[in-house]
């Protein structure tokens, strides 16, 4: 009888109902698995403070930064240097750059599928990935140790020797030793293999890493956390450009050779910096970073509540509700389910077009800046770093902040991507801000009129002639590229081709006197010097300013596009969906991008390095056509992005009963929950606890439940059905 009275009292008193539910939920706390931080049985108490979303984000940010620093910073920053050091073409270094994306393409599906299954430990997948990435970085530095020391052509005197005819190809090759004519193009495959390791190691970072963050923070904070994560991933390349550029100031064989004895400076065209040092230190850093990442459990405390409180915004097309795809044979079914989502597919294509632009220019923009504005690789890398930090990092973080600040739904997020992509399209005009080629005797200008460029000429279609009456009997050859800048402001292939017969060292550089081909003024203390001639073009500042805006608006769409992708698919498909998205981005974007950009840049070459086996790296490019081709590529990529984002917005169908107002109310409710997790909520019909959020249309279907309100509690949410007076566990 007492039990019956208690039950009646509980049914009549809403406060007693709340206490009863609390007691039931406290009992179920024993069923919750305790999560700790550590490695196996070693779980020190003083490290348990690391078991939070903020600390997990901290380590993931460093992992993302290391990936960006190595792949998009160090590698892209030394492309020009390794081309010159190992005699590689841009199409070959383009293959090297694409190796990362090829490996990611192969690994993304299995990594995202098996790493995203129930019971899989995402942190372990991520930690092993970082270790593999470190091994790839170490492999990238191997060619430096596997080949002989760098022999700059200036180590030998290359002056005009009167009475000797200019050497032919056959004479040069017959008179050279095997070591002097060593072909180093085989190193491209070692670079390619290291990039494959980079791609394998980085595969979990932007699939499992993203979903691990998203699963362990509220939807409102997810865009902020992911914005921070991607911002660090953007800062990584910027730091890589800056640090890599500074390392290029050190001579590559500094441990065995004093560059001053060679008369070389970083401004010399044949200077090779210590490109390999950064990769060695990055390898060590990756291995150290993996240790704390191994200590995290499959999920963080509180993740169950977050998952139960979410309302799905998945595209409401003809696809059925969530299905559980847990076996290997279910991969085709899961893939087909995603293909039936037009918004998801179009967002993938937009990501591919953006990826093509970003990957292509990340690899070859430093080369373009270096050649267009006649600056050294050191300054080109430094400028890339200075622009990338505020533009790329700021744009990425700002994009995530706008999604949170404006409380955008999936449809609103796609609109934001569309607007910023349209804006970025106008800033592609920066690539038309180019400079004319420097006068180069026998290539872009004639020996008889050195200071005057050949006007209205396609240099690619003109046969250059480095020989002239002033150097005909000097014994010059076309293999020892040692360019000098004449006092007349003209570049010459070598001191010999300038007709110089005397060499002196001055302040670490080499100066040349008595140059028959150079018409110098009486005020000049030398006829030529082994540095790059200064350009009179002042477009560099304007180019950097407009390029900054292009980068800002390009990266501004990164986080919103990612948020839209995560929202337009069902929750249990997120890891797999991100894997499929990255596969498409790589197939149509980042894999062909370096190959395409490299091949097109090679088409603008007007002077190739010659060797006994084959031509090597490009020595001089046609600035006019390089600028034109880069602008066309950027414009086409941006137009495609605009079209695909528009299609994604047009075909998106929100779930039934979900609109902007509801989404805002949901965000507000979630915010209130974080501040007051145990708030009691009453309605006109009585007390109701924790209405199940799985079906937003239930309240409309049942008139008696229209006034039901939702409260959130700190431990996993349970649903109280007042019609049955029991918990639905």
TrEMBL record:
Q: Where is region (Disordered) located?
A: 662-703
Q: Which UniProt keywords apply?
A: Cell membrane, Disulfide bond, Ion transport, Membrane, Transmembrane, Transmembrane helix, Transport
Signal peptide range: none
Q: One cellular component GO annotation, for this chain's record? A: basolateral plasma membrane
Subcellular locations according to the entry: Cell membrane
Membrane topology for this entry? Multi-pass membrane protein
UniProt-listed GO biological process terms: monoatomic ion transport; sodium-independent organic anion transport
A Pfam match: Kazal_2
**Transmembrane helix as UniProt keyword:** yes
- Give one GO term, molecular function aspect: sodium-independent organic anion transmembrane transporter activity
Residue spans of biased composition, Polar residues class: 672-683
Any stretches that span the bilayer, and where are they?
55-75, 95-114, 126-146, 188-213, 225-250, 270-291, 343-365, 377-401, 413-434, 540-562, 629-652
Instruction: Report whether Ion transport shows up as a keyword of the record.
Output: yes
Per the similarity annotation, which family is this? Answer: Belongs to the organo anion transporter (TC 2.A.60) family.
State the name under which the record lists this protein. Answer: Solute carrier organic anion transporter family member
Organism classification: Eukaryota, Metazoa, Ecdysozoa, Arthropoda, Hexapoda
